[in-house]
Design a protein that fits this description.
Elements: H1 2-28, E1 44-47, E2 50-53, E3 58-64, E4 67-72, H2 78-88, E5 95-96, E6 101-104, H3 110-147, H4 153-186
Antiparallel strand pairs: 1-2, 3-4, 4-6, 5-6
Helix pairs in contact: 1-3, 1-4, 3-4
């Protein structure tokens, strides 16, 4: 009987973890006015017919706080990387010198910082809604397991309490990530 109980908890926690990882990925690439490889590393480049993230095709360095340098492993894909960065519309014009691509990161205006912080907050709210949906699904699974006599009524109550506890922990984690990102965005 514990097997069903544990399985529901494990699935719930795994799904919530994936949701939080997705949230981290979404806000990782947000511009802060400083050069960060995360800004472009996931941009897809058409490389021999398949979309490939830049990080798999090139080294991305930050020799200066406001400069990203992209040095492809295969120099023949330099033009494709440049096109992909332009297409990504990240507000930075790539400068291709034939060997590397330089991206000068302009400082963010106060207005843009606030917009990014609002976007991060909205993304955090969407993440919390997803977490609550996972909780709802887990509670339905628990109810179904109790109905099918796979777990007792007492176990059902404990299981729902555990699911709620996991949700609270994950929501707090989202808040901490959001607070750190907002602080980073608002710094000069």
């Amino acid at each position: 009987m514990d097997n069903v109980y544990d399985q529901i908890l494990l699935d719930t926690e795994e799904r919530m973890e994936k949701t939080i990882e997705n949230f981290k990925e979404k806000i990782k690439g947000m511009r802060t006015g400083r050069a960060q490889p995360a800004l472009i590393e996931n941009i897809k480049v058409h490389y021999y017919g398949s979309p490939t993230p830049i990080r798999q095709l090139a080294n991305i360095g930050t020799p200066e706080p406001q400069l990203l340098v992209v040095k492809p492993f295969d120099p023949s894909c330099l033009g494709e990387i440049e096109k992909a960065i332009q297409k990504a519309n990240i507000g930075i014009t790539p400068n291709n010198d034939g060997k590397v691509i330089r991206l000068q990161i302009p400082p963010l205006s106060e207005e843009n910082r606030k917009k990014l912080a609002t976007f991060a907050k909205d993304t955090a709210e969407e993440t919390k809604v997803s977490l609550r949906n996972i909780r709802r699904d887990a509670n339905k699974q628990a109810d179904q397991a109790e109905k099918e006599k796979q777990i007792s009524e007492d176990d059902l109550k404990h299981l729902k309490d555990e699911i709620q506890k996991i949700l609270k922990e994950k929501e707090e984690e989202v808040e901490k990530i959001l607070a750190a990102k907002t602080k980073e965005l608002m710094e000069d």
